[in-house]
């Protein structure tokens, strides 16, 4: 269970935030049972050794960055799942990938909605630890909306069970919800009870391109004001061209923005809703807009949107932002980001889960060019400042981790930071759980 | 703002749990601003005076029972609301009734789903404090699923803002969710940001009566296994007859159980789903079952179900239970309750939000008959013991309050109790917030 081989430790030094400040862990542990997780944490608690919990290592905010002298506790070998079709719930261990959970429940005709773009490679435990989102959240909510219960190992090694397979449970404090999104700073999740839905109906898809960013954001507000799409995604000109370079789908390279909108209303109502969205795009000034009820064609456009990050990444390493704003401020955010890109002379591509106001500005930079790298990092911070000034959040779905913690006080203020620290100190008085993350 | 008139204080002694152990408060305060709430709590904190927060006083677990030497802080005068149709959110103060929130947002074509049976008389602040449920939760979830943010006054009088009108926000701990359902033990909510949905489509309604409890629970499981009804309510024979005594609707007095099931799928899909539910009822052995697409007729059956509690109450004062179980155990719970009623020789009527496994056994007793009263209270506890033994909860939606706190450790265990106390002590070190509730 305990690994100290430097080559293997090296592979666990970083997550996908590639934090240059990553340290080298004392050891890697890969427990196979909750009892082993308890034993490790109990030992670490007694010896005051910090622990960095790690799922699949796909985090984008550095929440799993290894620290000098710490244990890395990987949940990758905790991989059980059982599905209960009557209560429509699944009990899963944290090391399963999101896609594995989706596939296992689909075999029973059920659906686990949350769908981060990384769903094929990210773990369900990491999803719960960061309260991960995705593309369907605009209609179906985020991870916390699907977590009914959990088993979690506390800082002293005690394993507790919270909640359970009950759609309603008002007994005691909402502890389950507190641990979702706590990024490994309050406990280590060893099991989750997830709420499931019946299989998603077939979707109708609308694809539209726009001559200006303003036309695109107008269409977004018109759509969300009229109905709840099952997906409403945005790519800017840079992303469109980067995707087209790779996939040759015939996307309009001249467009300032592209929307992919979907409806999963039952039967022909998906088409009705798609037509409303199509009309909204046309009214907002779309240069081209069409609807398809072909699942494969619709999925191809969603895949194109999911492929935007790797496609833009071909231009150079990315600083991946995750800021969100209340929907009416989306236009201000997108235009403000363009202004920051001009001012700092860096390439920033904006893709977005537009329907819930959650954007991913992708800042391209050459880490070997110190001047450009500095400008990119300045832009990274300025985008968070901008989101905060618009009443938004520094992170919609990736978490604070280590990369964003300097901005958290600016968003939530000193009193909420004090409250956060009070809870952290009460639950982890020796600060051994993921030190340096969030706080 | 401060009231010490004994007559007025008397009216604030109890909530609808009618706890005989209610005390007489030092004074009643009815602040009109958050600043006043802060001032009161700061004063109470300095002088170590306990505070019992109170919404509309409709709580059923004694969470608002006045205590000797305490201040009762009523939120009834905090009544502002503003609706944002673009982000589809409402910012509301806690003193508004649930029905007032529903009506205000309906004027904008929007819908606030959570619908406790008491929605015309319970406050939205109390709903958040108890994580209240209702009839539509089987499809639409409970209060916490609709709370995106809040302003809350902490035990030292500091007012903090948590979350906000953002569908996704992963910045920091999930503090908003921790305060929902904390029953006034961690802070006093002075404002809520609520997520809203587009107006609910018209519903199709199925009403079915069953010769046995088993037939009824078979139908419930068949329905929830096939689709997500927008409502799935149950009344037993006692409730049917009590309602029929009052309303003369022509309900089948011979039936062992009655289900009211609804679908709000768009357009004719509501009818399709209703037909699936109708067939499930017939297959499970319904003596009579019919579907109506008439909104008024459907609403009449829902109103009958909501009227069950007052109707049964005509037989005598009630001990109102709120136990829930995972759905497959619903039959065991209902049959076990009948067994407890026989053994203790008390009348217990069971009504239920059947689709989410949340039942309300109504224990009729004469408080002036000490022997019967004792048997009723024994049954009250035995029903909770039964629910716990079936993997259930002692409270699905009413909260623990003071009436159920003796059973909370049996449900969650000593480690979760210790965790709960750690958080309580950290956030309210002098124990001034709603002492004696939950813990």
UniProtKB/TrEMBL annotation, chains A, B:
Assigned keywords, A-Z: FAD, Flavoprotein, Oxidoreductase
Domain FAD-binding PCMH-type, chain residue ranges per copy: 21-199
InterPro entries: FAD-bd_oxidored_4_C, FAD-bd_PCMH, FAD-bd_PCMH-like_sf, FAD-bd_PCMH_sub2, FAD-linked_Oxase-like_C, FAD-linked_OxidoTrans_Type4, Oxid_FAD_bind_N, Vanillyl_alc_oxidase_C-sub2
Pfam families on file: FAD-oxidase_C, FAD_binding_4
This protein's record includes keyword S-adenosyl-L-methionine: no
SUPFAM superfamilies according to UniProt: FAD-binding/transporter-associated domain-like, FAD-linked oxidases, C-terminal domain
Needed co-factor(s): FAD
PANTHER family, A to Z: GLYCOLATE OXIDASE SUBUNIT GLCD
Protein name: FAD-binding protein
Organism whose genome encodes this protein: Nocardia acididurans
């Amino acid at each position: 269970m305990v690994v100290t081989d430097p080559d293997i430790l090296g592979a666990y030094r970083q997550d996908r935030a590639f934090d240059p400040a990553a340290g080298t862990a004392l050891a890697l542990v890969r427990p196979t049972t909750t009892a082993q997780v308890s034993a490790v944490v109990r030992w670490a608690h007694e010896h005051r050794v910090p622990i960095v919990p790690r799922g699949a290592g796909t985090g984008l905010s550095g929440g799993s960055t290894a620290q000098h002298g710490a244990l890395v506790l990987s949940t990758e070998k905790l991989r059980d799942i059982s599905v209960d079709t009557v209560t429509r719930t699944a009990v899963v261990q944290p090391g399963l990938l999101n896609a594995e959970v989706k596939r296992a429940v689909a075999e029973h005709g059920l659906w686990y909605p949350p769908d981060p773009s990384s769903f094929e490679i990210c773990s369900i435990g990491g999803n719960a630890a960061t309260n991960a989102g995705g593309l369907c959240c605009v209609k179906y909510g985020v991870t916390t909306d699907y977590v009914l219960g959990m088993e979690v190992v506390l800082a002293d090694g005690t394993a507790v069970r919270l909640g359970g397979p009950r759609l309603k449970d008002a007994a005691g404090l909402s502890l389950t919800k507190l641990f979702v999104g706590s990024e490994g700073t309050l406990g280590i999740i060893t099991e989750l009870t997830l709420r499931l839905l019946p299989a998603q109906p077939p979707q109708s898809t609308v694809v539209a391109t726009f001559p200006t960013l303003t036309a695109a954001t107008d269409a977004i507000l018109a759509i969300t004001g009229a109905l709840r799409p099952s997906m409403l995604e945005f790519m800017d000109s840079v992303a469109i061209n980067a995707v087209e370079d790779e996939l040759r789908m015939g996307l309009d390279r001249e467009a300032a923005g592209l929307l992919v909108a979907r409806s999963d209303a039952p039967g022909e109502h998906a088409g009705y809703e798609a037509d409303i969205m199509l009309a909204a795009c046309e009214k907002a000034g779309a240069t081209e807009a069409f609807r398809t009820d072909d699942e494969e064609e619709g999925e191809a456009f969603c895949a194109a949107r999911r492929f935007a990050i790797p496609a833009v990444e071909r231009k150079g390493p990315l600083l991946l932002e995750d800021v969100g704003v209340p929907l009416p401020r989306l236009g201000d955010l997108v235009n403000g980001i363009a202004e920051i890109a001009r001012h700092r002379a860096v390439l920033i591509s904006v893709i977005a889960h537009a329907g819930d106001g959650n954007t991913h500005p992708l800042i391209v930079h050459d880490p070997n060019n110190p001047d450009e790298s500095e400008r990119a990092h300045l832009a990274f911070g300025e985008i968070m400042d901008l989101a905060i000034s618009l009443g938004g959040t520094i992170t919609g779905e990736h978490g604070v981790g280590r990369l964003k913690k300097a901005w958290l006080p600016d968003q939530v203020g000193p009193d909420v930071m004090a409250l956060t620290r009070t809870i952290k100190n009460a639950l982890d008085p020796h600060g051994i759980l993921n030190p340096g993350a969030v706080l």
